[in-house]
Amino acid sequence: MSSLSAVTRATLAKDLRLEWRSKDAINSMLFFALLVVVVFSFSFDPNAEESRQIAGGLIWVAFLFAAVVALNQTWARELRNQVLDAYRVSPAPANSLFLAKALGNFIFVSMLEALMTPLFIMFYKLRALGPAWQLIPVALLGTWALVVNGTFFAAVSLRTRSREIMLPLLLFPISLPAILGMVNATTFILTGEPFVRFWIVLLATYDVVFTIACLLLFETVLHAE
Amino acid sequence: MKRAFPILAVLTGILLSYALYEALVVAPTEQTMGNVQRIFYYHVPSAWTAFLLFFINFIASVAYLIRRNPVADAVAVVTAEVGVVFCTVVLVTGPLWARPVWGIWWTWDIRLTSTLVLWLIYVAYLMLRRFSTSGQTPVLAAALAVFGALDVPLVYFSIWIFRTQHPQPVIGGGGSIDPRMLHVLLVNWLAFLCLAALLCWSRYRLERLQREVEEAQALESIAAPGGSR
User: Fold this and answer.
1) B217: Cβ–Cβ under 8 A, 6 or more apart, which residues?
2) CB contact under 8 A, B128 and A170
């Protein structure tokens, strides 16, 4: 079994199963996500009119911090058990490991977002003036943008001192165009302004470009550790 | 070749002094902004030099990824470091100029945002090189440089398209430049290029020496039986 999709599915299933059985990462991440929402709502407490202007930025910054905490433990299990060495000598394509990890992170971060969003709506009394359904492609594309680069840079940071800080140091500058897109798209949907489609297209372009870049370079990075 | 370095150093010193004289004395005073505008002769050449250095870094990184040539990696490190220095000059002189002229320190227009993103990416690059304990740091850093090269055009392009669709007040419009000012600008750019070449050259020599020392130390610890290390 060494085809890309078969190995990807197997690795993803293994990760999900491990996580489901131990639940160590899930519980702490969920609680952290809740805390982030509460702290942000404490610190910025606008009325319903203002909240639409700033909620887009607030929500995505909160998601970004929750995502970084989740991404930091991407490769932790692999490091503890020398799985990466075993992977390097196996005939399995490196990209299937990357895709499995990225998809696992995507599922995980989406769960965190699904928890945080209703809380934000509640605390900020949000109501979208534009077409609210457009928030779904924004959420999907934006989360993938953070997760695909985050998984890649988590692998790059594996052998660095201060590993946990290295990931956001690398991820944030590279993610700036995606963050621009996510925040602007969300804000314009909430306030009912036009030009949402432009930012969604930008997010999609960012996703395509960087997914291809990650897939092309991951094997090099995996063998470089 | 050894004599060329001091010659370049002297030449750079002369050029920089001449360029300073030109910028402060010879160049005509700008109509609306007055003498504050003279910082333009440091701001713009620094920006062009930084972009050129980062472009060389991108080429060297790609060359390293393809061929694993250590010279390419050394060039990448050197150009990244000197490029960050010049980019910092741009980001400091910019607000210093903007405050008296526009009344604001900063704005998120297309050039400022792209330059800031470029600076952030290359500072992250230098941090990766410093903090990485892997033996294959050059490969990781080269991968990051490629990501950066994809990222900055995206930032520029997205803000550009958005601005033409969604017009905002134009700050610092284009327009033509007085030929005497252009002459001073080019003289300053030449001086800055010589300074960049001087800095890169001496940093490159340092980098090569450091690598030779590390290699010699590694060979010694392998060869020496029961070494004290």
Assistant:
1) none
2) yes
- At residue A41 the predicted structure's pLDDT band, cuts being 50, 70 and 90, is confident
CB B97 within 8 A of CB A139: no
pLDDT along chain B (229 residues), means of 10: 84 90 83 82 92 95 93 95 96 90 85 91 94 86 93 86 60 64 90 94 94 91 69
Does A13 contact chain B (CB < 8 Å)?
A: no
Report the C-alpha gap between A30 and A206 in whole angstroms.
Answer: 28
CB-CB under 8 Å, B165 with A195: yes
What is the full DSSP assignment across B117-153?
A: HHHHHHHHHHHHHHHB-STTHHHHHHHHHHHHHHHHH
Of A160, A161, A220, Cβ closest to residue B65: A220
Residue A163's alpha-carbon distances to A75, A103, A178, A185, B128, in angstroms, are: 11, 22, 23, 32, 10
Report the alpha-carbon distance of residue A89 to residue A34 in Å, rounded: 41
How high is the ipTM of this complex?
Answer: 0.87
Which residues span the domain enclosing A125?
4-223
Total domains, chain A? 1
| Two structure tokens written together for B28 | 């005509």
Set of chain B residues whose Cβ sits within 8 Å of the Cβ of A195: 162, 165-166
